[in-house]
Design a protein that fits this description.
The protein is α+β, with helices and mostly antiparallel strands. The protein has a single domain, classed as Aminopeptidase (3-Layer(aba) Sandwich), CATH 3.40.630.30. It is globular.
Length: about 190
């Protein structure tokens, strides 16, 4: 049976989750794993371990923001892909977050074949790709703030650029800005 538990409660499998996180997401899309796992000073999100019975199979990070729920990460162990775990997990996540608008971020459709397949997969679960790109900040290999183009998908169609930009502003202020500030503090120590 699939279950989500806070990753902090599954310390014995921390290495599995850290390796999965580093394998599943490119460097520019991931933040410091330990900093994210610690979840200091932020009750708006939960970093979940995904288990099948008691066996670790994946991870997800879910945010409860002002006007919407935001799914930042979802990864299933690559050895288990193609076994319908992802479908089962996304269905469970969409049920958990269904109390308000759901937002996820994806790489643009035209970036590569994997990005295209990922978007098509989310569309099968009813998520709608936004027409607009945005710049997602990240820390590059030189420890400088940079950005990459991303898109969002939502559970309800976004009607305007203004609505899209308001969502991005909330994500930036609640998700990225605190991380960038924390990294600045770590760099200065």
């Amino acid at each position: 049976m699939i279950k989500l538990i806070e990753m902090k409660e599954d310390k014995k499998n921390k290495d599995f989750y850290k390796n999965l996180y580093n394998e599943a997401f490119p460097p520019e899309e991931r933040w410091n794993f330990d900093m994210t796992l610690e979840n200091e000073d932020n009750s708006n999100y939960k970093f979940y371990a995904i288990l099948d019975d008691d066996a670790p199979i994946g991870l997800t990070l879910l945010w409860d923001l002002d006007d919407f729920n935001y799914g930042e990460y979802l990864a299933i162990d690559k050895k288990l892909r193609g076994k319908k775990y992802g479908s089962e997990v996304i269905t469970k996540i969409l049920e958990i977050l269904s109390n308000k608008l759901i937002v996820i971020e994806v790489e643009p459709y035209d970036l590569n074949e994997i990005a295209k397949k990922r978007i098509e997969w989310y569309q099968r679960f009813g998520l709608i790709l936004s027409d607009y790109n945005y710049d997602m900040p990240y820390i590059d290999e030189n420890k400088k703030i940079s950005s990459i183009k991303m898109k969002i998908m939502t559970s309800i169609k976004i009607k305007s650029k203004e609505e899209h930009d308001n969502i991005i502003k909330i994500i930036y202020n609640k998700v990225y800005k605190p991380r960038l500030e924390k990294i600045d503090k770590w760099k200065s120590n």
